[in-house]
Amino acid sequence: MKAFCVRRVHKMKKRQDCYVFYVLSVLLALGASVMGDAFSCDRGAINVDPEHPAWLLYGDNAPFYMCGPGDPEGFLYRGLRKADGTREGDQQALIRKMAGTGANCIYMIMVRSHGGDGTADENPFVNGDPGQGLNTAILDQWDQWFSEMNRQGIVIFLFFYDDSAAPFHRDLTDGALDPREEQFIDTVVARFHRHPYLIWCVAEEYIEAVSPARAAKIAERIKAQDPLRHPVAVHQNHGTVFDFTDNIHVDQFAMQFNTASSDSLHEAAVSAWQNTGGRKNINLSEFQPRPTGLALQKTIWSIAFGGAYSMILQMDIDKTKEEDLKICGGLVRFMESVRFNETAPSDALARGDSRYVLARPGQLYLIYSETGRYPGVDLQAGCYTLQWFDISSGRWFHGGRKTLSDGEQYFKKPASVGDAAVLYLVCCL
Fold first, then answer.
1. E strand or H helix at 5, and its extent?
2. Fold for domain 47-336?
3. How far apart are CA 133 and CA 349, in angstroms?
4. pLDDT tens per residue across span 368-421
5. What are residue 2's DSSP bridge partners?
């Protein structure tokens, strides 16, 4: 279900002209599930929403949401290393395990040697030596894995450097790049930019080995070499203040915030949104400890309604229950069925049993509740179409149309809708 509204002024009087398009109207009316079995893999390269830069879009301008494993960080280096540098690993099996679950990203790092968390040979260089350039056989193998990930709708979340990894040894004056590093960046971008579902990340916990000036230069060079303009992220140590809020070449704050509380993660996401002024997308790409089951569901939905994407640290694909991957996929499917990319975190509007709110006031509201039967919201007057989404079952329920006045409004949750639910209000004619 997708909707948009246009507000006009006519004869000194404001009125709303709202146009609502129901992709799944029949299913919604019947209370059917929107949890499909497959994802389209031909939707164009994901990129920043130009009107709402806190969010990303597919190439066809549909909203894109990301949620999935934050491990294995060493995905590219799993398995026995062969003489040519390639691996006899389980990468294809991990991709197949994720396929169809809806979990839609894999966190991976190209250089994990030279001070990083990996072994000496966990890099793509000939004989593990940056001075010898990139190993074509390794890049060919990565290309095969990346192609399969894109066929399955899985994002390649690709770091250049692990924390403390310094294959080119030093920062030059004013952040200038070593010529070998320039060649590394240019070759990688030229080789892999064609994959539509790709996010570049400069470095994990970048400040451990890369200066802010050099990180900015790397981001600028990536953008200059990438004709598809894939998003560029920078990952930082724990905190909600982004070092690159004003940098036009950096699109995403890959955020680390270590806490066990879903409320704290929600608040951290909201804080990061506020600190960036909604100008960068927030990806809570590292948080711990890793939740599972219903705790995972609660956590990732709290992050989403804080205005952020999420990748779950220690969610090693091989060791993760398929059900947990499907919980991530359920969130992805829901978010991509609504126009969440037009909204911002708006918890101040929550009333009654509502817990969190994403909203574009007067246009649309996403109201999340975990318990209770009477979620509420402080809204602008108008006619609204109501839809209820049961998070546990993945089912939509049609709630009809209502003309509502300004101020606090409360809605009785249908008996068929479970405790964890979202009320979706969209303006109508």
1. strand 2-10
2. TIM Barrel (3.20.20)
3. 55
4. 999 888 999 999 999 999 999 999 999 999 999 999 999 999 999 999 999 999
5. 21
